[in-house]
Each structure stands twice: as C-alpha cells, then as structure tokens.
Amino acid sequence: MSDRKYRQRGYQQDDSRERGPQAPKPPRPPEQRAPGRQLQDERGPKTPNLMAAREVFRCTRCGNLLSLPVGLLDRCSRCGVDVHACIQCVSFDTSVRWECTLHDRIPARVVPKDERNSCALFAARTTVERQTGTPATGPSSSSSSATSSAKKAFDDLFK
Length: 159
Fold this sequence. Notes:
By secondary structure, the protein is low in regular secondary structure.
C-alpha cells in the first residue's frame, strides 16, 4: 500500500523515479488531428462578424459630416466655419511650433487657424468610424418599416 492517502503528487515529492524517463511524443501530422474537426480553409481562419468601418471627414467645430475632396471655398453647412483651414488639416497640432507638424516646410505661421487659407500642404483630417446602424430606407421610413426590417433580419438568421 502507498504511503499517500489520495495518490496525488505531494509537496517536494518526485514521481519521476517511479515512472522512468519518457521520450517526447512526436507531433501528429495536421491530417490526423481530432476526428470530426475540419481542416482550416486555404483562405485562412474565419474572421468574426465585425462591424463595417468607413473613413469620414467631420467638421472640428460641430462634428457635421463633410464631403471629400475639400475645395478652397467650402464651408461647413451647419456652423459655417471654413473647411480649407488649419484646424481641419491632418498636420494641425497645438503642441508643435507654429501649430503645424509641417512647420519646417512652411515659411511663416498661418494665423488665424480657423479661417480659410491657401496652404498647399493642406490634407483633410479623416477618421475611421464603425458603422453601427444601417442606412435609412428613405425619407418616409417610419417605425412600422423599422420593425418590419428588424423582423426580416431576424427571420433571415434561421434560413
């Protein structure tokens, strides 16, 4: 009979003397993995169903969605601020010299930052946003059409 009550390995006990040395097992070839599991598709692993992403250009003052490309005379339709201005540019940064990351390429500081300028290095500041909702079906979309589209989407899950 064993001196251990529950037959587990205890503290500071070495069971390697009892079992003997073991050789490492060779890895199984990928074709002989667990039965019932399919091999990975040649296109790679399946990705989860993520929300779609889109690149948008928004007004820095009011957050209104603006169109690209930006013209020299364009203004925000909601707040009226000039779109071709330093505050709408990718290079605008308040922590660097002349508040522009391209300060070594421009001859002088552009003032004021929220008014129209003719900077040749202007590039619109775009952000990537997740599309969390579906676009509206039209101007006459009502609550009944929203519920019917939700019901249709639910029914499509079980087809």
